[in-house]
What does this fold into?
Amino acid sequence: MKRWQKIGLGILLTALVVAGIGRVVNARKAQQTQAVATPKAVAMLELADTDLLTVRQAELSRTLEVSGTLVAVNSAFVKARVAAEVKSVAVREGDPVRVGQLLAQLDTTEFDWRVRQAEQQAQAARAQLEIAQRALQNSRSLVTQGFISPTALENAVSTEAGAQANLQAALAAVELARKSRADTTVVAPLAGFVAQRLVQPGERVPVDARLIEIVDLSRLELQATVPPDSAAQLQVGARAQLRVDGIDGPVEARVVRINPTAQAGSRSVIAYLELAPVPGLRQGLFARGSIDLDRRRALVLPLSAVRNDQAQPYALRLDGAQVAQRTLSLGARGQVGNEDAVEVLQGLADGDRVLAGSLGAVRDGAQVRITDTRAPAPAASAASAAR
It folds into this structure.
């Protein structure tokens, strides 16, 4: 191949390469121009009506959750006042009793003899007193006649006084013996129901042994443990609603007393809630519920809509078709009906719609579209409407 042919072939190849590079550059410029001219498609977040919550004015109730065991206000363990053998027990568990009703009878044999012994000793003391009184009368007569000295009269006076004291002591012993015999009859100190029968006939019981437990179910209380940070807000007379095991529906209650002393260790305070009379209530049942601390109207937001994944709590408000993050200033927490809510001090207004917390993370400024979740009307109903 001649030289001039080689040079022409090189020039041709160079021209082809330059032309190819130019075509590539022009194609890229066209793509960039088209990308600038065509806007990017914006992702839309579809929401249902149930995904939105409304800020509104409502009655916010602040409550305190409590729980505990029901205890009878009036109850008693009837104990033996004397040591004796149990002859009979007249009641069993569940029996109703009235004040003064016979519950049990202890053996009286030993106490009958003690009464007789005390009475005999009292008779002997009375006889000694009579002798001392006659001797005193004689001594006074003899002193006036000069047969005995005044000192002898003083001795007679002292003897008579001692005999009088012995008689009084003997009479007191008679009363004590009679009381002990009366204590063998065990009666009910209050009206109620027998909760426990702790002895059987034939047993010998010591003094202060528990015989029978009586419970008055007409007044029951819940002993609730209140944390120290809530005890200062609790007031006597506050209303409460309780759920008691085995009882259908809520049971009304009222705070009647607050213990003035905090418990050691936990520093908690015991509050006593008296329950309204309801059939079926029993001592020992477990109850749980809430005490109303405060009720007032406020601008409230469901607690589930408050987000706390940043330094300050916030909510995602719906502004037209866009989501806007709003920092919140919150007040007291409580309930609106059965829903947990919180008072909104700043950041939202009455009627604002916010995204529920169940939606998860949604960026500020996201575009949203509300879909109608209402079911379409049946065809028959639509035809009727058309006519």
Notes: Residues 109-145 form the longest helix (37 residues). Residues 49-62+296-371 form a domain with the conserved putative lor/sdh protein from methanococcus maripaludis s2 fold fold (CATH 2.40.420.20). The longest strand covers residues 56-79.
